[in-house]
Each structure stands twice: as structure tokens, then as C-alpha cells.
Amino acid sequence: DAGVIQSPRHEVTEMGQEVTLRCKPISGHDYLFWYRQTMMRGLELLIYFNNNVPIDDSGMPEDRFSAKMPNASFSTLKIQPSEPRDSAVYFCASSLSGPLRETQYFGPGTRLLVL
Amino acid sequence: EDQVTQSPEALRLQEGESSSLNCSYTVSGLRGLFWYRQDPGKGPEFLFTLYSAGEEKEKERLKATLTKKESFLHITAPKPEDSATYLCAVPQGGSEKLVFGKGTKLTVNP
Fold first, then answer.
1. Residues of A at the B interface (Cβ-Cβ below 8 Å)?
2. Chain segment A80-105, per-residue pLDDT in tens
């Protein structure tokens, strides 16, 4: 398997622009997670899905952030409008079943810079 | 509030010099403690899960142990390829959300 695939790997945009991050989980995995990593706050869970349904989005910082999972093989994280403080590395991860009993497999991340 | 604190923030070792990394947590009813390794520019990679005090797990030069309040990641005779940031995480409260510590950046010099 190719592992979790994320695109783009790097994104540079200007404040106010819309940003869309994409993720393809490992085939057969029922759970998908979006994380954000910064030096100040470390790795934080933003939202996770089970069988394409959002389960917990309490980590989504603001209404500017939204995430969708239209099918089992694709998810998006959208930031609209983007702000400089959104600059971070965004990771997508997937697991076969519940995160407490199954390993989460992380993608390579998308490094976002908002100018 | 559930907290995960890792120490030290950074650790520099000579090849072959054994040491330990610490992960302390304040969460009621621990339902697992997870260790991950993260290489620069990559996503975290799973290492271990520990579920109960006294449990130990090993993988090559790494051994993870768990008590009621903390976990240790022991590194025996490290090699330069063990250089990475090591993260620990615990589930938050009654949820399935993992709360991560900020990590220990380990550097092993040849």
C-alpha cells in the first residue's frame, strides 16, 4: 500500500485566500484524522471521521476551518479565509478501527505558509 | 485539563550512550499511552502502545515502560539512526482523541 497520501506537500498563499488540503487514507481504514503541528502548540487533533462521518470536530479552531469526507478514499480540510497564524504542518492520518486500539498511520504532511 | 508533559525537550547523546525519555500525564482512567517517532519532514510513526502500569514493550534498542503517572522510553546503546523526535500521547478524558506531548528531540552523535 502507498500509505496515507496528502497533497499538496507545500502550500504558500496570501492572507485571505482559500486553502484546500487533500488526503487519501489507506484503503480499508475506517478512521481518518486531521492534525495540525506547530512549534508552539505541538501536534493537535482538529477533527476525525469514522466511516466518512465526522465524530469529533472540537479541535477545529474556528469557523474558517471545515473538513469533509465525501467517500472512504478522500477527505479535504479547507481554510477560508486563511490567516498567517494558520501557518503550520497539517497531517492526515488513518487507522483500521478505533484510535485507541489500532495504530494511526500518518501521511507526510502539508506544510502551509500564509503570508 | 488532561496534560502530557515530555522531558527533556532535547537530548544529545553519544553513540552507545544509553538514556531515558520521560512522559508524564495527568488524566483520569488511563486507556492507553502511545509512543511515536517523528523524523524531520515526515509524519509521526507508531512505536508502542502501553495499557496498564507495569507493562513493558521493546523494539530493537527501545523499551517503553509505564507507571500510574508516567512512561519512560529507554534507549539502549543508541545509534545515529535513532535520532528523531519522540512523541507520547494519551486519550483525552472519555474520548478517542489523542493528546500529544510536545516531544523530545533526540540527537545521537557518531
1. 4, 42-45, 48, 55-56, 58-59, 91, 93, 98-101, 103-109
2. 999 999 999 999 999 998 777 778 99
Q: Which residues 13-72 of B have a C-beta within 8 angstroms of A?
A: 31-32, 41-46, 49
DSSP conformation class of A84: G
DSSP letter, residue A74: E
- Match 477560508 to its residue by C-alpha cell: A80
Cβ-Cβ contacts under 8 Å, A44 against chain B: 100
Closest alpha carbon to A21 in A30, A37, A10, A32: A10
- Per-position pLDDT tens, chain B of length 110: 658 999 999 999 999 999 999 999 987 778 899 999 999 999 999 999 999 999 999 999 999 999 989 999 999 999 999 999 999 999 887 778 889 999 999 999 99
Contact (CB<8Å) B42/A109: yes
- Please report where in the chains the cell 488511563 appears, as a residue: B30
User: Going by DSSP bridges, is the β-strand pair A10-13/A110-114 parallel, antiparallel, or unpaired?
Assistant: parallel
- For residue A108, which residues of chain B lie inside 8 Å, CB to CB? 41-43
